[in-house]
Amino acid sequence: MSLPVVAIVGRPNVGKSSLLNALVRSRIAIVDPTPGVTRDRVAVELHHNDHRCELVDTGGIGVVDKLGLEEEVEAQIEIAMRGAALLLFVLDAQEGVTNPDREIAARLRKLGKPLLVVANKADHQGFEKSSAELWELGLGEPFCVSTVANRNVGELREKIFELLPSAPEVAPEGDVVRIAVVGRTNAGKSTLVNKIVGDDRMIVSEVPGTTRDAVDLRFDHGGRTCVVVDTAGLRRINSVQGSPDFYAQARSERAIRRSDVALFLIDSFEEIGKIEHQLARLLLDSGKPFVIVLTKWDLVEGKKNFEQFGAYVRDRLDFLQFAPITCIAAQEGVRIKETLDLVIGLHEAAGKRLGTGEVMRLFKDAMERRAPPIRGGKTGKIFYASQVDIRPPTIVLFVNEAKIVSAPYQRWLGNVLRDAGHFEEVPIRFLVRERIKNTPQE
Length: 442
Hints:
The model is unreliable at 32-37, 202-213 and 239-246 (pLDDT under 50). The chain has 3 domains: 5-162, P-loop containing nucleotide triphosphate hydrolases (Rossmann fold), CATH 3.40.50.300; 173-350, Rossmann fold (3-Layer(aba) Sandwich); 356-434, K homology (KH) domain (GMP Synthetase, Chain A, domain 3, 2-Layer Sandwich). The N and C termini lie far apart (69 Å). The strands form 4 sheets. Strands 2-3-1-4-5-6 form a 6-stranded mixed sheet, sandwiched between helices. A 6-stranded mixed sheet has the order 8-9-7-10-11-12, with helices on both faces. Strands 15-16-17 form a 3-stranded mixed sheet. It contains 12 helices and 17 strands. By secondary structure, it is α/β, with parallel strands linked by helices. Helix content is 32%, strand content 22%.
């Protein structure tokens, strides 16, 4: 069942992104005084009393975008408004009604949608009296809130669901597979996300840095409910300009942490460099499984052999030997379904659990073939091993001395598990613990 959409609209700098964050109790949208920070439709689920809707933040109506994307931003706003079951028209209670507000109000009246006027920045009751002039818009009683002081935000949440009587109940979170789409700027992330969800939800532009927020979009694949998260493309540190870009990169890192699986996009026209290594390390440290996806393959087919290019990727990112590699042509939708099948398969594989007996048997045989290294005249010993967690698969090792069982030896043990058919394409995490010897009591 599709979720009813609640679209937040208004002119720039009235607090639309702040309102979304306050309603969902999380810093989802980037909040910055710079006009035009929000470009795409930033969507997130809003829950209240076991019911849910899709809350959508939009760009400021009438914004002048420094990258010349006004038409694209306006198109996203129009789509959000026409698809909404409820519109939240946000105004600045401290500034009162402006001419742009009047123009927006006239436009909203023509849509004939259920609408709620939200007077933001009403930091105390004094502003509620002055907000009476907002009645002149003829759109009903303004609902006064303050996202900064958290005034009446909970009441607004309740009001939204009163106006959405058909909002479906919350689905069990464990049934949802969260997919982060990451890569450098202009690697084709937004094009891929649009193709996955079957809608032009993201602005696609040749201008790097178009996407700043991490945008959550729900879709179904093979009977599974999924949420795909488009993220801002990572740039070199010295090319990050201003707080919006800084927060965009922070959102990308957070999106990886809260995902179940990631799609690591690599532009087939670009050499693998520091940005890809940075992302690869972020993914590896997160413990999340991921697919390496070569994008724009339709434009290079015939010029490069996939096996050769795959070998190039393995060589440049040699610490990611376990991760599957595929190629796509997102514009034409080529290999999108197969890539999503890979994602679901990785999610299932990362949730597998091995019995302690199987782990001990494999590691005992492995140590007979290759014992832990000798350091300081002491030979490393593994007394006990067991899987203690999933997603990522986590193996605890009880040893005689932790520093002897080095990271390279742990990677080798991980390959032992993979060679035996376990966790073949997902990261494996090891926890090394020294066994405490019993000491005689005095």
